[in-house]
What we know:
2 copies of one chain form a homodimer. The first copy, chain A, has helices at residues 13-20, 23-34, 51-64, 82-88, 92-100, 104-122; strands at residues 67-72, 75-80. With 123 residues, chain A is mostly helical. Chain A has one domain: Arc Repressor Mutant, subunit A (Orthogonal Bundle), CATH 1.10.10. In chain A, strand 1 (67-72) and strand 2 (75-80) form a beta hairpin. In chain A, helix 2 crosses helix 5 and helix 2 (23-34) packs across helix 6 (104-122). The first copy, chain A, starts with 12 loop residues before the first helix and ends with a helix. At the A-B interface, helix 1 and helix 5 of A face helix 1 and helix 5 of B.
Amino acid sequence: MTLPHPTADQITLSNVLAALGDSTRLAIVGYLARREGRPTMCLNFTDFGSKTNISYHLAKLREAGITRTEVSGTSRLITLRRDDLDIRFPGLLDSIVAAAVDLPMVKKIEDAEEEALAQGEAR
Amino acid sequence: MTLPHPTADQITLSNVLAALGDSTRLAIVGYLARREGRPTMCLNFTDFGSKTNISYHLAKLREAGITRTEVSGTSRLITLRRDDLDIRFPGLLDSIVAAAVDLPMVKKIEDAEEEALAQGEAR
DNA sequence: CCGCTTGTTCAATAGATATTGAACTATTGA
DNA sequence: TCAATAGTTCAATATCTATTGAACAAGCGG
């Protein structure tokens, strides 16, 4: 089962920039970049907003060609489409991610995660 | 006489991307990049929309820190803030401009210009 | 099979954004 | 001083976008 994604050549600069022009989605991308390697699903973003809202933003990112969403059981695995974006717009994602990883919003939820983890261990 | 511009460190990634997420403004930036060196004023953009509309979009670009607007008599000279943007977000503008210069909208008005020029010469 | 987890879809709403024409400001050139 | 030029401001509007809660779908574990 696969969700609809644009092919590499269907990705437009306008759509990419419009998608990233929202602070929530920019934070999602920054967070995804930090977690690269680790599987990331919708639940990981709940600190960014309600379940419904995250679903909405992730759909926007997917439709713009910024993320890839793979269905895995009841969850979805979200990854950045680094390779495709780099072919279409060389250097673009790198420069955006470089700044996005340091966004206050991203740091905030990383801190929240560490705290939750620490508490889980303490229990 | 100077218009209000954000300082380099007041420029945020979110604002820049939101400003460039509009196709008209993206075309303006692409066009500005093509004209780099030559002075460019609001009148040059009239093919992108009404006078009022261009004024609106140029204000957005200026407020986001993407362009600098200098008053010169009754006109304003618009330039890209390449240096400032490159310090804040290295590589970002370059990668965007590289794609934006080839936008259909940009090509269209360059063609229109050449035609107008040819006609002016013929007369 | 039942309930829990994970997400999506839908309808409603509030807020932001783009676009327009009319009126206005300010500078320049005759 | 007058008229033309170059842009802005304003109010109105139409459209789009983000956000929410309720209802739904689908896989997983007991």
